Structure to design on (71 residues):
């Protein structure tokens, strides 16, 4: 799964920081990439560090709660 790999980078060629020869078509499914590595503890994955709060997500959640009366 490319999305769970420490080398995944939307801005890189084929969305991978490693030199791969062809793109992985479905990055959400398992594949047999020889470069796959889990991120190190606290390392950013897809641009978000582990445990880091995302204000956009928090704001969207608050707006939904206001709209639908949740939380």
């Amino acid at each position: 799964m490319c999305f769970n790999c420490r080398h995944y980078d939307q801005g890189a060629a084929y969305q991978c920081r490693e030199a791969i020869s062809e793109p992985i078509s479905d990055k959400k499914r398992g594949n047999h990439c020889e470069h796959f590595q889990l991120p190190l503890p606290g390392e950013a994955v897809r641009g978000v560090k582990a445990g880091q709060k995302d204000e956009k997500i928090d704001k969207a959640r608050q707006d939904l709660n206001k709209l639908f009366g949740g939380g």
The chain has a mean pLDDT of 82. Helices lie at 55-68. The two ends are 33 Å apart (CA to CA). The CA atoms of residues 40 and 65 lie 34 Å apart.
